[in-house]
Hints:
- The chain is α+β, with helices and mostly antiparallel strands.
- The chain has helices spanning 26-48, 52-73, 89-95, 98-112, 116-120, and strands spanning 6-10, 18-22, 74-78, 81-82, 85-86.
- It has one domain.
- 60% of the residues lie in helices and 16% in strands.
- The strands form two sheets. A three-stranded antiparallel beta sheet has the order 1-2-3.
- Helix 1 packs antiparallel against helix 2 (52-73) and helix 2 crosses helix 4 (98-112).
- The longest helix has 23 residues, at 26-48.
- The radius of gyration is 16 Å and the shape is flat.
Amino acid sequence: xxxxxxxxxxxxxxxxxxxxxxxxxxxxxxxxxxxxxxxxxxxxxxxxxxxxxxxxxxxxxxxxxxxxxxxxxxxxxxxxxxxxxxxxxxxxxxxxxxxxxxxxxxxxxxxxxxxxxxxxx
Length: 121
């Protein structure tokens, strides 16, 4: 048996761009749960609050979880240059088009088997 630990996802928002996304393993899922569970608990507390500051903090923490998923799951980017240089996963997240980053996040969460509402929690 031959097993590939990543899948290639052709972008629908940026034609010609291919994202390499990690497939989840048992150990990696456990590690991700460990990384995001504390943040998810904090999000629930802040979302229960009524102040603007609490709601903004919940949104910030949701972005931290998304960043953890991207850091873990986005292995490579092909067919994209940012400021004249070939894109890397980190340069895509930091400087690339937001809609392509969102597409990468969706590809990662689909590998994790997460629905949109689970990804935010």
